[in-house]
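Slide 14.
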Amino acid sequence: MNKGNSPICQVSFLNKAASLVSALEGRDGRVIGKAPKFTMDLKRISKDDFLSNLASEKRPWQGDYLAMYSSQWRGFVTDPALMMVPVDDHLVHRGDGVFDVMRCVRGKIYQMEAHLQRLERSAKSISLDLPSEYRQIRDILKTLILEGGESDCLARIILSRGPGSFSTNPFECPSSQMYVVVSRYHSLPVKCYQEGIPIVTSKIPIKKSYFATIKSCNYLPNVLMKMEAIQSECKYSVALDEEDCLAEGSTENVGVVSGDGILKFPGFEKTLAGITVKRIFELAEVLVREGVIQDVRFEKIPLDEAYLCSEVILFGTSINALPVVSFDGKTIGVGAPGPVFSKLSSLLRQDMSENEDLLTSIDWEAK
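Slide 15: predicted structure.
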């Protein structure tokens, strides 16, 4: 006979359980197993109440939101309180959508066509039909930037599967939707570029190659990478692939300058093809011709090799080129921004302000 299942043991267990409940009773006004009494008075909100409540709440983080277009409204708003997406849009509860972000620099949009092409590739990769309003995307972007009134800003385009249900079935959504948001641009403190920044290796697994190459709205791994970096008292982290080679940051590409003067970037098989880093690759040919570097390549970069490089640099739409001086606590190069970063950064700034082939003009006189 199993003694653990004997009537005596069962009675003993029940007595102990009753004593535990009795001991816990009164600690927080509840007894285990009983639902707490709710005293909150829930109001039914009317449309008028809804707008009134929105206006009464202070949301300081919305101060940088300048304008938003929604294909559902077929128009735009400049009141941040109204910049919302329906909760049943599959973008919200399934991450079913794609997006892209571009910079407006000194009143002109930089590399707009390259960003739109990547957005369209991402949409095609998940079989997301472009909404009919997308045909006017260039005019919508220019109008929103003008209405936002900031010559230096960020423009974010989001294409979603659209509202339709709370399931995973994309065919329950009658039509795809487009949201465009223009927000104020804030550069990093100058100190970050003058002195460099530390980074850490991320422990978050990278996305599988198929999903890594799509700029989808499912950014949970990226969010966790950013959280990890901040908790490590750094601004940025870099993930590794299955072979312990550098992959990418939460929203940044990474490059290194090897000891023999070769500028290297991880390939795009397992990372997002960054618009900025692709342009940097092209600009780096100038440094090859000048003899500043020996070559520029896309290839695998083992973590141990990265530690020994003379320079490590992050690249992205919002940061341009950012020098790394410490990686996992190990000093990179001489512990200060290097010459390759300096020259690439200068070339990129010039490109962003003077290369008319990559700049889309906006008629600011029309405002």
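Speaker note: The chain has two domains: 60-184, 190-354.
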